Amino acid sequence: MQYMLLIYGDEKLWREMSEFEIKQTMQAYVEFSRELAASGALRGGSELQPVASATTVRVRNGKPLVCDGPFAETKEQLGGYYLIDVPDLDAAIHWAAKIPSALHGSIEIRPQTANQALNQV
Amino acid sequence: MFARALEMLQRRDGGRILAGLIGKLGSIELAEEALQDAFTAALERWPVDGVPMNPAAWLTTVAQRRGLDRLRYERRRPQAGAEVLAALADPGADATPYAADSAHFDLPDERLRLIFTCCHPALAPASQVALALHTLCGLTTREIARAFVEPEATTAQKLVRAKAKIARAGIPYEVPPADALPARLAAVLAVVYFLFNEGYTAAAGETLVRPDLCVEAVRLARAISELMPGQAEAHGLLALLLFHDSRRTARVDSSGALVPLEEQDRAQWRRPLIDEARVLLERAIAQRAAGPYQLQAAIAALHAEARRAADTDWVQIAGLYGRLLRLQPSPVVELNAAVAYALAFSLEEGLRWIEAIEARGVIEKYHLLHAARADLLRRQGQRDAARACYASALERTGNQAERRYLAARIAALV
Question: How many CB pairs under 8 A join A and B?
């Protein structure tokens, strides 16, 4: 099954980190990604720019409405994701728990639907 | 006639057959539909062909076939379906057909796997218990709703959500690997304990005890204790259930009324179960990892040891409840601690403790709070106050056997 591991954390924490701490975290991410890739489970993933760079689009009455930022103010923001292919939820939990940000933020595990018409594009 | 017989079969074996089917077919919903098909088929075939030698095995075999048919033709879950079909096409995968070997049918593996699935931390705790009662013990939505004192629609919704989550999130049907077992153990033990209690004092209905649930809970506790020999609490739970189970038949008199511990015919207690429980408890205590189940088992052991009710070592029991209360602070445990304290040291101080618990209001609706208070007042000779408290207890329980007992207590005090 394919799962999205959505990485949520407080962006403020990143901004307050020392250069050394940032370096350490990045290194932990590199090692985690290598391990995940070596296991054969990795299908994709990326770190995302902070929400300040986000743009939200809605189409209402046939017109696209574009605005700055995300809709709601939340304490934790989506900061990145991995897409993995593993046998079951326990395996997904195993990888999610190893993501460095799980130590202070949280990882949301979302299973993909079985709708192959969408997923195989 | 066949409909009645099938209903009884469903009650007795439904849970076990379903657990096996879920393991084979990989989907709770599909297994339920297949089992329903099998019961429908039995209703058609048995009056014509006669009842098979092993009805449960017959139902299992037919349900399995119907389940596979559904998988093939409906293809509701194409990917999982293909895997199941491939596994079943492999002759090694099903080398022991159920029909030929009823001992195989009794193996707890499937149910053990299923209970770990039902207790997966990704499911809401309230749903875990409901799902376990439904899939492992074959309780209907109505029965579960009664046990939880909630509307049937709420229970139905909980079950539907939990089943959908298992299927969609890919919660596996397996006993977790050894390193993950201890973390998952607490939830599993809690569900088995709840199952037993539901059997031991059915929350509502005519009879006090549902022996089928007690037997199932003991069987599961035994399987878990064998699976995890290093876990003292697993042995503690099995010992606790065996101590209680040894008194099961002595708890109800011929008219179906509850007989309190103090008045039970101790010769009726089943000694082999007590002996086994004692060995288990000693083994657990030797592992030096105390926990709530071991403490409760130790309390039950002290009751089992007393030849007459008057010989009960209330001082030690009060001490054990004190330890239990520190480990597991809850108003119900505190109530038990207060009763033990009253009987060990001072009725008056015990009563004052119970009044303090009641004043906090958290378990004001709990009928045993009022029954315990009534009992201590009766011992003090305060007949009017005791009667009033028994009456409050009576108002708060739906179990007929308990109601009869409480009514008799009130009558004796008039």
Answer: 28
Task: Tell whether A93 is within 8 A of chain B (Cβ).
Answer: yes
Q: What is the pLDDT of residue B97?
A: 35
Parallel, antiparallel, or unpaired: how do β-strands A55-60 and A63-68 relate?
A: antiparallel
Q: Is residue A36 part of a domain?
A: yes
Domains of chain B: 2-78 (1.10.1740), 109-172+182-201+210-228 (no CATH), 238-250+266-301 (no CATH), 365-414 (no CATH)
ipTM field: 0.76
Looking up residue A10, the CATH number of its domain turns out to be: 3.30.70.1060
Cα gap A32→B322, rounded to integer Å: 47
Each residue's pLDDT tens digit, A76-91: 899 999 999 999 999 9
pTM, rounded to two decimals:
0.74
Contact B122 A93 (CB under 8 A): yes
Q: Does B161 touch chain A (CB under 8 A)?
A: no
Q: Round to whole Å and give the CA distance between B185 and B192.
A: 11
Task: Nearest by CB to A89, from B77, B79, B171: name it.
Answer: B171
User: Which of helix, strand or coil describes residue B361?
Assistant: coil
